[in-house]
Structures are given as structure tokens and as C-alpha cells.
């Protein structure tokens, strides 16, 4: 089996364009879109980013993330824990262009963080909803979420364990939210 070329996505973006100007615009959109999705994914602790969960519109360069079941740092509790803040593979990096992560991508990331800091009260209000009403796993017959990840997922539990699971989910969600707010609080206060 051959290794996937590092420039596969960059070539696809290039081949989908009919002119150099169109390619430039698509690449710029790809840089901005990748930055936005990366930073927002980092803020909400989005994990499980693989080829089926990151969609790229080759005609516009827009990047869309789908499947938000693994968020609020659930990925760190999987059997194979996720250790990176967002997905930045050689293929994704190559499609950013000559400057890679140090060009438009970086300035876009900085801009997204500034916007989120300015709107921190709104963001915290939205995220606070998850503290009082944590995400539920809608997958029928599976024990997903934090406890499912910790205990190997898809493990059938007895009915009386459901209350314990819900209580654990709430405790973990509250602690993860508190940690995330504590991490970001200093930077937010600096940028008042």
C-alpha cells in the first residue's frame, strides 16, 4: 500500500480551478475557513477529526466540520487518546500554500481568537448551556459520551447504571468547562 501524497489536497484545489486568480481566491478561502474551523474546534474541544468528518468544497475552498459527538475534550478519553488541539496533517498544511501555517492561516487564527474574545460574554453564555444541559448521546444502543469512552464504548450497562452515568457526565462536563474557562480567562481579561 502506498503512502498518500502530501500535496493531494493542494493538487485537487488547483485542478478544480480554471485560472490562477480563481486558484488564489480558493486557496485564500481555504486558509480562512481552515483557521476558523480549527480555532472553534479547539475552543469547544472538538475531537474525532478524520476524513469523514472534515469536508472540503473544492470549488470554493470552504472547510466544514461535521459530527460533533466528540467535543468538550471527550477525545482525550478515547481508547486511543487525541493529543493535538486540531487536525493539521501534511496534506492540510500543503494546501495552505507557500507560507503554510505562518501566513494567512496564522493571521486568520489570530483574528478568530480576537473576535471570540470580544464576544466572550455571548460565547460563555452559549457554552454555559452545556453545563446545565450536557450533550447526550443519540446513538441507539451505545454507551457513548465520556463514560463510554472511558469504559471502551458500546458497552451495555444495566438500567440502574443510567443514573450513575448521567451524574458522571454532568460532573465531567462541569469540570471540563471550568478548566477551559480557567485556561482562557487570562487572555480574555488582557484584551478587555
TrEMBL record:
GO cellular component: nucleus
Top-level taxon: Eukaryota
Pfam families, per database record: PI3_PI4_kinase
InterPro entries in alphabetical order: DDR_Repair_Kinase, Kinase-like_dom_sf, PI3/4_kinase_cat_dom, PI3/4_kinase_cat_sf, PI3/4_kinase_CS
PI3K/PI4K catalytic domain sequence ranges: 1-180
Keyword rRNA-binding set for record: no
Keywords: Kinase, Transferase
UniProt record, GO biological process: nuclear-transcribed mRNA catabolic process, nonsense-mediated decay
Name of this protein: Serine/threonine-protein kinase SMG1
Molecular functions per Gene Ontology: protein serine/threonine kinase activity
